[in-house]
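Final report, closing paragraph on structural work. Over the funding period we assembled a curated collection of sequence-structure pairs, and we close with a single example.
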Amino acid sequence: MMTSLVSSVIEFLTAHPHVAYLTVFLLALSESIPIIGAVVPGTAVILALSALVPSGVLLLWPLLVAATSGAIAGDGLSFWLGHRYHREILGFWPMNRHPELIQRSEAFFIRHGDKSVFLARFTPGVRAFVPLLAGMLGMTVRRFYVVNVASALAWAPSHILSGVLAGATFSILGATAKPLAILLVVLVAAGWAVLHIVRWTLRRGIPYLIVAVQRLRSWAGTHNTWLSRSLIRLLDPSRSEARALALLAVLLVGAAWLFFGVLEDVVNGDPLLLADRAIYRALQDLRSTPGDAVMIAITELGDTKVVVAVTMVVLLWLLWKRAWRTAAYWLVAIAGASALNTVIKVALHRARPGELLYSGWSAFSFPSGHSTVNVVLYGFLAFLIAREIRPAWRLAVALGAATLIFLIAFSRLYLGAHWFSDVLGGLAFGSAWLALLGLSYLRRQAERIESGSLLALGCAALILAGGFNIYRSHATDSGRYAFKVETPTMAATDWWASDWQQLPARRIDLTGDTNEPLTFQWAGGLKELQDILQRNGWRASAAWTPLNALNWLTSQADPVGLPVIPLFASGRLPSLTLVRPHSDGASGGSRLVLRLWVVDFELTNGRTSPLWMGSVVEEHLYHPLSLVTVSSTQPDVNAPRSTLAAALDGARLLSRAEGTADADWDGQVLLARHADTQKTIAN
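Its predicted structure, as stored:
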């Protein structure tokens, strides 16, 4: 779907480039409009359109002019609104719903003065409010437009040329550009999701934690025991570390709950393990030579050699500063995390996804050692550094450490060294261990460690030790982590007789949920199957173009003309999607939808033949309030399968083992094969 949509967009822009230039102008303008600028993803779209310049779809100078003029016009409009309506405009909806953004922007303007108009252009959050406040607070029109034009002349090339560079890079990469682009999208989306989940958890968890802490203090105040006295000292609201203690407590509870939840699924074989295989397969399909080189280098930054080097450098610094207690905590944090991780690995004996030449205790998979140890190493280092630096720099340190940890953990997934549950369990366990040590560390008076120098020293140790490890190990690791395509084979006669039951009975999506039955298996090429079915009323699903996607927002769309929503099966998108009109539904018609996914088996009997598994379902289409079209998949899969069987000569229905059938499925699977495959089996 994504490839089809992107291709159609590029074709449209090739024929109508002025639409892209107008879009860039409007997006650059919207970036400076209060509230709208915080919602519209203008920067992302401008970068994406700029990436089309090297291919000749768009021209560089019109894009630069559109972005610059849009930025000037946007800031000018925002300034005029503030100059014309003053503070009255702050009482209008929706600005009256975001007083915190206005306060931040006003403080930013007061702190930086006239140059805040320039700086705000590159500062998310306050960017859309500072020009408005400049007009409200009396900045002269002449001075404003001097800074406004200067900032636009710097902002537009920084965005447009960055997109052009990215587009040129992907053009040079050729065939590997597509998987790399998809991988980049996956990384950005995963990072965005993790960031927002953490923010949501803290925002919702801290109020409950405050209530719990108050109740705990009340209980401790009515008792005179060692535990109650310790709790009173720990939870004293007058302590400067009260906020940090609250955050660490939330982290400890949340991370421990997540780790034991993952551990339970691993031990009991719950649906998370199905998601493991789906995610593993999806990521392996995205691998490319340049992507492998980058991810191997990142995973080498988390190797034991680098961990030991950074640990020893930080330890020596702490000893030199005579921070004896901090040095002891540092050793316990790293050594304890490594030891406990190894104990859990040995106790569970879980195998890795593939043969990666690991031996001894390292051959076991859960939890991921890279994830566990690195989250403790760089998390605790960031914790020590953040205690002494200015609050304005703490977020940068935390984001830097979190980004490095996330990339190392993701590299283990990408390279197939661990299952998703291994990495998730390792991050959760390491976070819980880190929070526990942090709570204990904050109980006593802090030692001075000169965090600025420690930050520089830690970064230098990571760069030097990591660079040396990459130089020494990259060639060997490239062979270890090389993606090995080994498609197992199955005799065609065995598949036709009984081995068809080795294929999954139901579709499993990326989350590990079990969905509709896979009621169809096909041996042969997809082109041959498509030709057979098209002679019997089936047709290829409509492509996901912008125009076709808009058909879902109407109530008069042809059921067969609507694009089909692609679904994952064991980490793969369908290779073929066909539709067929069906009898009219109660309020809008219906259609049959056939999806086919490739199987990790090849049939052999003198020649090889691909094998596919599929589902065929009925979708009813409804039109709520006669405004939009909504599809609903019907639970009965027997009738759609029978319709498919009528179009295939020589197909047969076979029943799966007992216990598979339910009220909506009789447990039977339709097997069919192309004529060449049939001859092969007969021979």
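Residues 207 and 246 are 10 Å apart (CA to CA). The chain has three domains: 13-177, 239-480, 490-682. We thank the funder for supporting this effort.
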